[in-house]
């Protein structure tokens, strides 16, 4: 699958951000401004892990010759961080090739002007040439987004580690401080925070889009620090406890789901993005408060089951962007604009963690169902395409092969069918784009065992 996705990208869209597999041409999302090569950088570590050595070398050459950050247009700080900074760091730690470290640090420095706000909470969008930032015009009251400014921590800690420049770690540590000093409604973190006033915007809370990876990075900061970052651990378990109290519910047929919290009222909808949380709960179970380990493993398993149901209840056996639990429906998308599947990884990500942590064979079975569905419904001559409606028997292609399909979806699937000693979880942390970062020991060194 990786060969098919990569070869077609190379044939029809080389050097551009993404591939349009039906039109057989390049696709450029505005998220990357005029930075090019998103698929190349996102795929580097997957190519390496799958031992696709020739492809890795040609990707490395492209990075060396062509990856250029001196671009005028605005970029999403979050997307560029998780895909480009994360992809370069991961490629460096796996291969030891200096070019990747150099490019990662160079890009990190280019992102620093985003933090020039009264609070140090960064802007969502940055013009990397002028250094001028702003927020998404649709965001509540000029706010920055929790999942965006909360998903820089892992990469920026590693940028300081690899460059010897403390500025990166200082920027993300300050974000933590701002959050800790704020009053949380019912212990929950709203999705919107104004970077000028330092106050919350709308009281909307989500473990899906706009919130998701903030919680993931609290847990992973704790794990990546060699379990030294006690503040992250405390913030994670307190947040998860509030989420359980106020947002996790069971449907009438016993499916556990995570709703959206809006000023005290629940919207009984769960996004595909939220499905990552099963793996997160399970990954954090070992360090849970006394007597809670089994509870969190069980919660992870229940979320995995719900997300599997969202896949199983469609025609193509791949899940919709969002599914609902109201008006008699369960785990089904009821709105046309929520029926699409864009090759997202979150469900197989949860299967991967559940497989590694429990070895229950059903997770391999479910993962193989996803493989077969991707082959039957998303594979086309020119690569892999997302679908506009997973409930339709005829394919409705969206004509985009997302870079995260190569970075995440295929990597997690590959790991489910590999032995546990390929990238053991005690030595490696996955960033939210499935890029690999080594656990740092207390002395700031990478943990033993990464050599494998």
Secondary structure topology:
Blueprint: H1 2-13, E1 18-20, E2 25-27, H2 38-49, H3 53-66, E3 74-76, H4 77-95, H5 98-111, E4 125-127, E5 133-134, E6 144-145, H6 146-149, H7 153-163, H8 167-180, E7 192-193, E8 204-205, H9 212-224, H10 230-246, E9 248-250, E10 256-258, E11 260-262, E12 265-267, E13 269-271, H11 277-284, H12 293-312, E14 322-324, H13 346-358, H14 362-378, E15 379-380, E16 383-384, H15 403-416, E17 428-430, E18 436-438
Antiparallel strand pairs: 1-2, 3-4, 4-5, 6-7, 8-11, 9-10, 11-12, 13-14, 15-16, 17-18
Would you mind describing this structure in some detail?
- Its cofactor is Ca(2+).
- This protein has 452 residues and is mainly alpha-helical.
- Helices cover 45% and strands 11% of the residues.
- The protein is built from 15 helices and 18 strands.
- The strands form eight sheets. It has a three-stranded antiparallel sheet with strand order 3-4-5. It has a three-stranded antiparallel sheet with strand order 8-11-12, with no helix packed on it.
- A hairpin with a 2-residue loop joins strand 11 and strand 12.
- Helix 12 (293-312) packs across helix 13 and helix 13 (346-358) packs antiparallel against helix 14.
- The longest helix has 20 residues, at 293-312.
Radius of gyration: 20 Å
Main beta sheet: 3 strands, antiparallel
Average of pLDDT: 97
List the total number of helices. Answer: 15
The best one-word shape is globular
User: How far is the first residue's CA from the last residue's CA?
Assistant: 25 Å
Helix content: 40-55%
**Order of adjacent strands in the largest pleated sheet:** 3-4-5
Count of DSSP strands: 18
Secondary structure class reads mainly alpha
